[in-house]
């Protein structure tokens, strides 16, 4: 689960990392009121889960009330597309914070290195820009050190990294302390990614986190009540519906609704639909051991997306029994008034029984295919051809 | 031969008294796996359909001779259960449980490493050696004994490919589900090493998905250390950046960890990558028959 900048900063503050104080606002009036209280100049920052906000015009510095109003009005409701084409992300809240007097911009992060199975701390004196570019163009400027999982990550260990990165002499102890605290956030809050870019030094020589990118491990939310509350808020209506029904659903842009069992098979199904020239509307993993009720729920979620014009069921029954799935499809068709074309591929455990159930139900909108590839081609055809 | 589980496996199931644990544990026994013990704290002395239950894994080792532990306990108690298994004296721990916090696994990973215990999973379907033993939730009916070793991050995708191999008349030495979590006990490289040494395995099918760099590392390893042919399939080409798709491991951000990057890395080292599970299975069969 990714946190918005201000949520990340609140987490930093809780662990003693200095951040600019500010307020979150959802309307222009709220934003102006916050700016008035904070004083000028102040930064008005779009709160969306994507990088490149500055370039997209989502971060502005207001020097008076009129500007605060103008910028808040422009940023709220804006659609931001990420640097790799992600999104668009609609801005529905802004964070207003006091303007900072920046003497230097650095970079600091603590991330989980899956390959090495350790936390990795990274520091660079070249902050404020795309860190991937820094890593590519001047790799020596990005200091990377793994954190020894068997030892405490203390100020001395952090200081070694800060020294190697060559940050200004006078703030090295402060910066080392910040790095220790960021590692503490990782450990205590189950964060698998913490990135601060830029980590600034103010003209008063204080080290402050001016941005915060934090990813919390969703599996650990049970031990973080405050963070679990954030996870409960989902913007998309289909994603919210799926969450309420306990389904793993991710909304995509296309018109072919997809349901498969197992995350791997489901991803593979999206791929073969795309190879057949179609555009998947969603990822929906009905899970192992899917029962009829789960199928009804899943179809309800898929159907509620108005863009969907045909649905593909790709089931390989292992623990999941195909007769259960077939019963779910039949029940859902009558309960949900389902008239969209439905392509079904059932294979694996009890597939013959499942196919018999479907044949007996004689649903006019149901098309059966034997293989995953044929099913993909058929659903793309029924959805109105290639996207 | 086969790898990780076989006729010498003596299995203790942590969570055997639970619904899932008993269903799958007994299913494994019905397949022929030597299920010697169940483990549930506080339920020592009971039995599940004739299988003695102990309070600790240590007792399952000393009293019933268990050498392999399967973990079926709920996520928030799973890491301590794996730690207990590592300390108990078993050689292999197979963790089926999904949803274990990644930082817990980080500590457990290094504990297993230090103790020299083989850890498979978590969030995996287990290991099947057709005709010998099944430890986990893999539906054995889709796999015959044979010469192809399978290693996979995904469960259902493996069944799909296994079934296609079976229909083509080929079988498997073992099927290893390593799990899709960010931190797993054994990576592709660990399992590739075992298949390379296993005389029964003549070809290896590797099934990866977006997230992390285990496939890229495997590609490097294959080029220098694996003499047997490897065929791969990667899922997740259409996954949008930054979205998480089910498996906690299946996260991509930016360009690294994408399905395309993995496919390119493997192909650069001479590994053939199928466009679909069907094509991967077909390439595997074709390659095996040409050996």
Description of the structure:
Chain A is of the alpha+beta class and 387 residues long. Chain A has three domains: 1-20 and 102-233, 2-Layer Sandwich (D-amino Acid Aminotransferase, Chain A, domain 1); 21-99, 2-Layer Sandwich (Dna Ligase, domain 1); 237-382, 3-Layer(aba) Sandwich (Rossmann fold), CATH 3.40.50.261. Helix content of chain A is 37%, strand content 26%. Chain A contains 13 helices and 19 strands. Chain A has helices at residues 5-14, 28-38, 65-75, 131-137, 155-165, 172-189, 225-231, 237-244, 263-275, 292-303, 322-335, 351-361, 372-382; strands spanning 2-3, 22-25, 42-46, 59-62, 79-80, 89-90, 94-98, 102-113, 118-124, 142-147, 191-202, 207-209, 213-216, 248-251, 256-260, 282-285, 310-317, 342-348, 366-368. In chain A, the strands form five sheets. In chain A, strands 1, 8, 9, 10, 11, 12 and 13 form a seven-stranded antiparallel beta sheet that branches. In chain A, strand 11 (191-202) and strand 12 form a beta hairpin. In chain A, helix 2 runs antiparallel to helix 3 (65-75) and helix 11 (322-335) runs parallel beside helix 12 (351-361). Chain A is elongated and about 80 Å long. Chain B is of the alpha/beta class and 291 residues long. Chain B folds into two domains: 10-120, Rossmann fold (3-Layer(aba) Sandwich); 139-290, Succinyl-CoA synthetase domains (Rossmann fold, 3-Layer(aba) Sandwich), CATH 3.40.50.261. Helices cover 37% and strands 23% of the residues of chain B. Chain B contains nine helices and 14 strands. In chain B, the strands form two sheets. Chain B has a seven-stranded mixed beta sheet, sandwiched between helices. Chain B is globular. Chain B starts with 9 loop residues before the first strand and ends with a helix. Classes of the chains: A alpha+beta (387), B alpha/beta (291). Chains A and B meet through helix 9 of A and helix 4 and helix 5 of B.
């Amino acid at each position: 689960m990714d946190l918005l900048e201000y949520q990340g900063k609140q987490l930093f503050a809780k662990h003693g990392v200095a951040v600019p104080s500010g307020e979150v606002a959802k309307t222009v009036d709220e934003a102006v009121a916050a700016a008035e209280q904070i004083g000028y100049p102040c930064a008005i920052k779009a709160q969306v889960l994507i990088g490149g906000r500055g370039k997209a015009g989502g971060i502005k510095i207001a020097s008076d009330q009129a500007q605060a109003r103008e910028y808040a009005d422009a940023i709220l409701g804006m659609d931001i597309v990420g640097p790799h084409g992600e999104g668009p992300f609609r801005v529905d809240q802004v964070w207003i914070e006091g303007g900072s007097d920046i003497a230097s911009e650095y970079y600091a992060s603590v991330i989980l290195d899956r390959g090495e199975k350790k936390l990795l701390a990274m520091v660079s004196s070249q902050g404020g820009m795309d860190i991937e570019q820094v890593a590519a163009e001047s790799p020596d400027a990005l200091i990377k050190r793994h954190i020894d999982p068997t030892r405490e990550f203390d100020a001395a260990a952090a200081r070694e990294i800060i020294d190697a990165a060559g940050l200004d002499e006078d703030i090295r102890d402060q910066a080392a302390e910040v790095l220790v605290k960021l590692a503490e956030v990782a450990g205590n809050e189950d964060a698998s990614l913490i990135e601060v870019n830029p980590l600034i030094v103010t003209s008063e020589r204080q080290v402050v986190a001016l941005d915060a990118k934090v990813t919390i491990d969703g599996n650990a939310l049970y031990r973080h009540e405050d963070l679990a509350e954030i996870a409960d808020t989902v913007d998309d209506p289909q994603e919210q519906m799926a969450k309420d029904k306990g389904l793993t659903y991710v909304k995509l842009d296309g018109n072919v609704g997809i349901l498969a069992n197992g995350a791997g098979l489901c991803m593979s199904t999206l791929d073969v639909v795309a190879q057949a020239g179609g555009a998947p509307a969603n990822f929906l993993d009905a899970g192992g051991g899917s029962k009829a009720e789960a199928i009804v729920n899943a179809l309800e979620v898929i159907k509620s997306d108005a863009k969907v014009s045909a649905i593909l069921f790709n089931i390989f029954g292992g623990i999941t029994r195909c007769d259960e799935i077939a019963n779910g499809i039949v029940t859902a068709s009558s309960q949900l008034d389902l008239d969209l074309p439905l392509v079904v591929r059932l294979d694996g455990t009890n597939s013959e029984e499942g196919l018999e159930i479907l044949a007996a139900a004689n649903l006019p909108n149901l098309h059966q295919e034997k293989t995953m590839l044929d099913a993909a081609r058929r659903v793309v055809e029924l959805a109105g051809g290639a996207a | 031969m086969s790898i990780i589980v076989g006729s010498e496996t003596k299995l203790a199931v942590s969570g055997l008294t639970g619904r899932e644990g008993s269903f799958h544990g007994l299913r494994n026994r019905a397949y022929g796996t030597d299920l010697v013990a169940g483990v549930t704290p506080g339920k020592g002395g009971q039995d599940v359909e004739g299988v003695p239950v102990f309070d600790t894994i240590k007792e399952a080792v000393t009293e019933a001779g268990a050498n392999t532990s399967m973990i079926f306990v709920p996520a928030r108690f799973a890491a301590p259960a794996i730690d207990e298994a590592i300390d108990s004296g078993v050689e292999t721990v197979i963790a089926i449980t999904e949803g274990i916090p990644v930082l817990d696994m980080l500590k457990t990973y290094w504990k297993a490493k230090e103790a020299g215990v083989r850890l498979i999973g978590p969030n995996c379907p287990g290991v099947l050696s057709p005709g010998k033993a099944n430890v986990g939730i893999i539906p054995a009916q889709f796999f015959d004994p044979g010469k192809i070793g399978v290693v996979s991050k995904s469960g259902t995708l493996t069944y799909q490919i296994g079934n296609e191999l079976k229909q083509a008349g080929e079988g498997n030495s073992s099927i290893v589900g390593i799990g899709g979590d960010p931190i797993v006990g054994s990576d592709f490289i660990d399992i590739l090493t075992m298949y390379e040494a296993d005389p029964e395995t003549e070809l290896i099918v590797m099934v990866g998905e977006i997230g992390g760099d285990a496939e890229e590392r495997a590609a490097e390893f294959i080029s220098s250390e694996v003499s047997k042919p490897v065929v791969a399939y990667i899922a997740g080409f259409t996954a949008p950046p930054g979205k998480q798709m089910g498996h906690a491991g299946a996260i991509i951000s930016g360009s690294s960890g994408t399905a395309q990057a993995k496919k390119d890395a493997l192909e650069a080292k001479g590994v053939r990558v199928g466009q679909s599970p069907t094509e991967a299975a077909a390439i595997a069969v074709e390659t095996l028959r040409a050996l």
